[in-house]
Write a structure and sequence with these properties.
- This protein is of the alpha/beta class.
- The chain folds into 2 domains: 187 residues, D-Maltodextrin-Binding Protein, domain 2 (3-Layer(aba) Sandwich); 100 residues, D-Maltodextrin-Binding Protein, domain 2, CATH 3.40.190.10.
- Helices cover 35% and strands 16% of the residues.
- The strands form 3 sheets. The chain has a 6-stranded mixed β-sheet with strand order 2-1-3-10-4-11. Strands 8-5-9 form a 3-stranded antiparallel β-sheet. The chain has a two-stranded parallel ribbon with strand order 6-7.
- Helix 7 links the parallel strand 6 and strand 7.
- Helix 4 crosses helix 10, helix 5 runs parallel beside helix 6 and helix 7 packs across helix 13.
Length: 344
């Protein structure tokens, strides 16, 4: 059967205890009332069939914090992205009437864990980990970056050094290949599903080494730490534009069709009125003259509304092919330590 591929220095303080207690509370009566759950954790329910956790029917379960915590998918230097999102966070504060603070996540797992415990309320989560956020933490994706004409996405690219002898996917056999994290779509899940159809099985034909981030994989190939790496084209584009990596020293030997980019959304148990305001903030934010436009303008200049059920269909299919399970053990696998930089 063929598979079609279309596809942030705030440190938590007093809310740790409250968040942990909120996480520990059972979803009273939910099991009895839940007619459909799908892949969602047992704490959640999906009676409306949209594949994301339903907002609790009991108002006492709704979160309406004075301060909203916002996080962007883990990157090499979170402080840079705190500045990039400053204007949006100010707008989010204006639209919701809340204070908004930044959480610089150091791993995909830390984002999911923070969402689960109630310490993180609004986030931008990378493509593959979005599925874990949805199923394990009650994350509800509502928006994504795109161009004004609606175009969006990035490609899985397989990169190597320009002067290496690796010319095609089959040449990966016996090589040092970096994947990103177990949950990463372009950095692990998609390669495992797609490379197999090209005669190469990761962990069988080559040993997988997890780098922790796309940035680390790219720099690892550039520095000769790895022979090759499957990465997200959007990250390579960004690093090349900033001069962090010399694109001329790398060669793309294979790439996929587009996947959806980082999703943006909120915790399922935010007060319904707050959910509406967060959604409105994303969909009405004007990028003109902002640092968001400076950073992402080459490929995006707005947020567009999305649904997890529709835009993540192929990502879910890939994870299903790979036999991915949405469990606590699998989530711990998202926490890959950052690779130490090679001394020159």
């Amino acid at each position: 059967m063929s598979l079609s591929v279309r596809m942030r220095r705030f440190r938590f303080a007093g809310i740790f205890v409250a968040g942990a207690l909120a996480f520990a509370l059972p979803a009273a009566g939910q099991d009895a009332a839940c007619k459909n759950r799908g892949d969602l954790d047992k704490r959640f329910c999906d009676n409306n069939g949209d594949l994301v956790a339903d907002t609790p029917t009991d108002p006492s379960k709704w979160l309406n914090p004075d301060t909203l915590v916002f996080s962007y998918t883990p990157v090499e230097d979170p402080s840079v992205y705190e500045n990039v999102f400053t204007e949006f966070m100010a707008y989010l504060a204006k639209k919701t009437g809340k204070k908004v603070k930044w959480y610089g996540a150091d791993s995909y797992a830390s984002q999911v864990e923070a969402l689960r415990s109630g310490r993180l309320h609004v986030a931008g989560i990378s493509t593959g980990p979005t599925v874990f956020g949805v199923n394990l933490a009650g994350y509800v994706p509502i928006a994504m970056m795109a161009k004004s004409d609606g175009r969006f996405g990035y490609k899985l690219q397989l990169i190597t050094q320009k002067d290496s002898g690796i010319m095609k996917v089959s040449d990966l056999k016996g090589k040092r290949v970096a994947h990103v994290t177990p949950s990463s779509n372009s950095g692990n899940q998609a390669p495992r599903a797609l490379f197999k159809s090209m005669g190469v099985i990761p962990d069988t034909d080559y040993k997988v080494t997890y780098s922790g981030k796309h940035d680390n994989s790219i720099m690892g190939v550039a520095n000769g730490d790895y022979d090759a790496a499957p990465i997200a084209s959007s990250v390579l584009d960004r690093m090349a534009e900033k001069g962090v990596v010399d694109r001329s020293k790398l060669r793309i030997i294979w790439e996929s069709k587009p996947f959806p980019t980082t999703s943006y959304g909120y915790a399922y148990n935010l007060h319904p009125d707050l959910q509406k305001k967060v959604r409105e903030a994303f969909l009405t934010f004007d990028w003109t003259g902002t640092d968001l436009l400076k950073e992402f303008g080459r490929k995006s200049n707005q947020f567009i509304g999305i649904t997890y059920k529709e835009q993540w269909v192929d990502v879910r299919a890939i994870q299903k092919v790979n036999g991915t399970l949405y469990t606590d053990e699998a989530m711990r696998g998202l926490k890959i330590k950052k690779k130490k930089k090679k001394k020159k």
